[in-house]
Design brief:
It is a single chain. This protein is α+β, with helices and mostly antiparallel strands and about 180 residues long. It has six helices and six strands. The strands form two sheets. It has a four-stranded antiparallel beta sheet. Helix 2 packs across helix 3.
Length: about 180
């Protein structure tokens, strides 16, 4: 007779099972290489979900960048703890360095491959902020160099963390559209 799994092993397996269920359920919110037409802002579709064309990073990369440039901000009540506002100061400094206004955004976390994204533009701002391909590549390369990112780290389309998406609602909408 085999030994039953420990409570710890059981909980870990259960957590992983639930995580995989959520990833499957929220698969339509994965980062995308191209912006699908259904998320373009048009007269017929004036309020699609907010999606950022952005460079994925982990927040620790921005904290390290901030430290390198003496941008760390600390909580007044606990001077040993770095404030998350440091991320905003680091993003502002990086924007100055690459001479392009980047926006710190938070991706839809269940399906994201990062903690934060540096948004070049969104589906709402692409008409005003989108650069020609050559200039966009220059900005991406400068960000990669400044943050020490691998050349394989490329922008993708990320759903915003505050997107009020309900997979069941979307299924009903697309059912009627068919």
């Amino acid at each position: 007779m085999s030994t039953p799994p420990s409570k710890f092993e059981f909980l870990n397996r259960e957590r992983e099972r639930r995580r995989l269920e959520l990833v499957k359920l929220f698969a339509p919110r994965r980062p995308m290489a191209q912006l699908p037409d259904q998320y373009r802002v048009t007269a017929a579709n004036p309020e699609p979900s907010l999606i950022h064309f952005a460079i994925p990073i982990h927040d620790v990369v921005l904290y390290q960048y901030a430290e390198k440039h003496n941008l760390n901000k600390y909580y007044p009540c606990d001077p040993d703890v770095i404030s998350p506002t440091t991320l905003l100061f680091a993003t502002d400094r990086l924007s100055e360095e690459v001479q392009y206004e980047l926006e710190l955004s938070f991706p839809f976390d269940i399906t994201a491959d990062c903690d934060v994204v540096l948004s070049l533009y969104s589906n709402y701002t692409m008409e005003e902020k989108m650069l020609i391909d050559e200039d966009q590549e220059d900005v991406i390369q400068l960000v990669q160099e400044e943050l020490g990112l691998d050349k394989s780290v490329r922008p993708k389309w990320y759903f915003d963390a505050d997107d009020p998406w309900d997979p069941e609602e979307e299924d009903r909408i697309f059912q009627y559209a068919r």
